[in-house]
Predict the structure.
Amino acid sequence: MRLSRYFLPVLKENPSEAQIVSHRYMLRAGMIKQSAAGIYSWLPLGFKVLKKIETIVHEEQMRAGHIPMLMPTLQSADLWKESGRYDDYGQEMLRISDRHGRDMLYGPTNEELITDIFRSHVGSYKDLPLTLYHIQWKFRDEIRPRFGVMRGREFYMKDGYNFDLTKEDALHAYNRHLVSYLRSYERMGLQAIPMRADGGPIGGDYTHEFLVLADTGESEVFYDSAVTDLTFGDRAIDYDSVEQCQGVLEEFTSKYARTDETHDEALFNEVPEERRRVARGIEVGQIFYFGTKYSEALGANVQGPDGKQSPVHMGSHGIGVSRLLGAIIEASHDEKGIIWPEGVTPFHCGIVNLKQGDAEADAACESLYEALTAAGLEPLYDDRKERAGGKFATMDLIGLPWRITVGPRGLKNGVVELTCRRSGESEELSPEAAVQKIVEIYANHQTGRGF
Ligand code: ATP
Ligand code: MG
C-alpha cells in the first residue's frame, strides 16, 4: 500500500475522551471512530488488524477440529423465552420489535440459537463429538461502555459450542479449547494466563478466563509468578488425544492463578511469598462447561449406543476478538505509539522515503516495494511529500515492527537503514539484504495477507 493512496486519518492531538493508552492510540492512529457510545466504525487500519486477529482465531479453531459457521446478529426472542433467559438477561440485552410487533433482540451470545440448530438436525451419538463456532458481532448494552474497544456495546466475538454425549467427552472439548486458545494468543504475541473463574449460577470448577496482565485491566488477579514462565511454543499436539490435551490443562492450570471472584486467600498463602503476585488483567477469553443446562431447557437430546435418549453435554467458549486489539496495545506500546507483534501487524514493514521526488530514492523505494510484495508481504510505503520527522512519527505511532528508511545519502553507499520498532536499533545494509531479513523474520509468523 502506498500511503498517498491509503486512508489513514492520524490525529496529532491526544483525544480527551480516551482514558487509557490503547484507546488513545487507536484513535490517534486512525484505526477506529466512535459512532455512538461503545459503538465504532473500523477504519482501514483498525479493520486490517481486526481481520488478522480473526484469521488467527479461525486457523487455530479449525486446527483443533472445530467447525466454522455464521449465525445472525438479530434473533427472535422466542428461543430465549423457551430457555428462560429472556427475562433473566436484564437490561444488557438490546430488545427490538419488528414491524409486526414481534419481539427480537440483538444477540449478546448464542447458546439458544446453536442449541436450536443442534436439536433440529442431530439426534444420535454417531454425529458426536461436534463443535461449531462463529465469529460475529454481539451487542450488550453495557451500563458503562469505556476504554474504546475494550468494553464496547457492539463487539466482535468468537463463540464456540461443543456437543458431546458424556461429561467426559465434553471435558475433552473443554481442554481442546484451552489448548487452542493458548496457541491463538501466543500467535498474537500475547501471554494470556488461564485463571480459575467463577462458574456463576451454574457453579462447578469448569470455567477458566484468559487474562492478559496490564495495569489498566478491569479484573484483579492473584497468581503464582511461576505461571508467567509457561509458554506453549510450537510443540506438536494431537487434538484427539485426551491425555495430551489434559496434560496441557494440568501444566497451565496447576499453579495458583485466580480472579478476585474465586480468589482463596488461604490457598494463595501456600504459594512461596516471593512468587505471590497481585495485579490487574484484561479478560480476553473464557471457556465453560455447563453440562445439560441448555439442552434440557430446549430439549436437545441424543440417542446413545444403548438406544436411550439423554440431553447432550455442552460447553461454550468465547474469545473477545475486538477487545484483543486493545489488549495487545496495552501490552505492547511505548511513548511514541503502538508496537505491533509480527503476528498481527497491519503491514509487515514500513518504507520511508526521505526524499520523495529524488529519482534514485524513488526508484529504490519502488524496487523494495516490489520485492517485498513479490515475497508475499505487505509493505506500507510512505510516498508522501512530507518532512522525514513527520513520516517517522506516523510510522512509530501506527507501530509497524520493521521500517526501511531510504535516502540519497545511503544509496550513494549502496545501503538503506533497517530499524526495529521494538528495540529502536538500526542497521545499514543493502536493499537486497534488508528484504531478505524481513522475509526471514516473517517466515516464522503465519500472518497471511490482510484486507
Ligand atoms: P466481562 O466480564 O469483561 O464483562 P464477560 O465475562 O461477560 O466479559 P463473556 O461472555 O465471557 O464476557 O464473553 C467472551 C469474551 O468476549 C470475553 O472474554 C471478552 O474478551 C469479550 N467481551 C465481553 N464483553 C465485552 C465487551 N463489552 N466489549 C468487548 N469485548 C467483550
Ligand atoms: Mg467472561
